[in-house]
Amino acid sequence: MHSTLTEHARCLYGDEYRPTPECSREHREHYFVEQLTFAGADAILAMLRELCPQCTDGNLPVWIRILSYRLVLLQRPDEPELMREAAMVLQVFGPDWDDVAADLVEQADALEAG
Question: What is the distance between the alpha carbons of residues 21 and 36, in angstroms, rounded to a whole number?
Fold first, then answer.
């Protein structure tokens, strides 16, 4: 197994900003998804921020990005900034996700209003 989620993603999907490192490990998407599924929010956010720093760039597949944000929000359900960040990603890759993005923004607004 790769030492970090970011390293695993970089080996599997590449990195828009750096060369993909030499790696002799087996790269199968389902192994990465298993690691992602049980990763903590900090590890997932580190991966997203390093491999997709502008939210719309990077080589991570859209479905991996959306799943990543969903997993982060399940672990951190009361963070309006993360909700808005996830909503922005959904809007960029929508319109299928526009309703979900709008709901996230409403939830973030409600949390801040207290």
Answer: 20
The pair of three-digit structure tokens given for residue 73, joined into one six-digit string = 């929000």
For CA atoms 37, 40, 43, 46, the dihedral sign is: positive
Residue 96 tokens read as 């299928």
Confidence band, pLDDT 50/70/90 cuts, at residue 19 = confident
What pLDDT is recorded for position 1?
A: 57
Q: At a CB cut-off of 8 Å and minimum separation 6, what does 43 contact?
A: 4, 5, 6
Residues 6+ positions from 111 with CB-CB distance below 8 Å = 78, 80, 83
Q: Are 111 and 80 contacting, i.e. CB atoms less than 8 angstroms apart?
A: yes
Angstrom distance (rounded) from CA 70 to CA 45: 11
